[in-house]
Amino acid sequence: MRKLILLTFLTFALTVKGQEIKKLTLKDAITYALENKADAKKAKLKVENSEYQIQEVRARALPQIAATGSLNYNPILQTTVIDGAAFGAPGTTIQAAFGQKWSSTAGVSLTQALFDQSVFIGLKAAKTTREFYQINDQLTEEQVIERVANNYYQVYVLRQKLALLESNLATTTKVRDIVKGQYDNGLAKRIDLDRMTVNLSNIKTQKIQITNAIQLQENTLKFYIGMPIDTVIEIPQSDFEVTPAALSETPNTSTRTEFLVLKKQEELLELQKQSVMAGYYPTLSLSASYNYIGQGQQLPWFAKPSNGVYWSDFSAIGLNLRVPIFSGFSTKAKVSQADVQLKSLREDINDTKLALDLDYKNAKTQIENSLTTIQNQKENMQLAEEIRQNINNNFLQGLASLTDLLDAENASTDAQNNYTAAILDYKLAEIKLIKSKGQLKSLINN
Description:
By secondary structure, this protein is α+β, with helices and mostly antiparallel strands.
């Protein structure tokens, strides 16, 4: 049977002429997906982007330096009313215009945060965000691995069903030819030949349906690993041996990636709350500036005092203190919102822990049941095949009816399909068990 399956797989793979056949083990498929699938690439880009987020927050703690420049023309100067006593004319009022028609200023300013609680918390949050995206990248990889493995095994099962149909088609064709020969010689009834023809037609229809299903499932697999759809793939038989999984080791839920992602989100929400509470703290910063200004009755640029333009410089150094006193309870409301978000996330964490424990228990139960089912179906398949062969021999010797033969062939086909389905159930349960232990990467490390 194994030789027949391998032969059928090879025949199926060679149907597309002129194309290179890519041998695809499960490890190859997963590795290809992690390198080419958009989900995996985007997760790594988020990790890279987190480094830039850290740089952005760190910049707030560094000196901020800026250069400024301006050019102003004042067609109408503002006048100011002053007491004439200042100019020796008490009791009079003087209206004077100050300034020049043209003024131009160039300068540089520096601002340095000396104490800002939100900046310090922002640095912690940025680093925690990087850790979050690194864990999320691991989670994305595990999701890609699980999805690829499930589809990979489904392709295998469909190919096995195709191999079985090929075998049944060959056997049924031989029996149909025998019945036709008997009918031509007047040793069989027309209804017997018609029944064999209908049975043969049904098998051919099933073959077409399975072939189409294989194509669709293979296309889905290629999509999930990011492989060009036109690529012809070959899946080795050796990847599907049933080896009982270790069931004694109870996994530690706290090490599961899904759990770690939520715990890191909890850290981020805690920091977000602290960032809001930073609004209660005062801020202190240092500022300094140096400027150069030119004023006159004409455009100051490149002009000199002889042209009526005068240049001078000025500078300032200062400390800026801001002490929040009352914000209309805005900060308090934001802190309360952050508390609610934290409480909600902690409920998600508790629920996720229960769900992870449930996944392990269910996977363990399904593995145990699948192993029993595989053994039973294997024995049933072997017995059904022995019965089919015996009835086939009896039919050729005229000791069994056509109805007995058809029933035996159908029973044998059903038994083999049930065995194949049991293997698929086992492999899917095995993936869930490996996932529940947080060991999905072992599928590419072995």
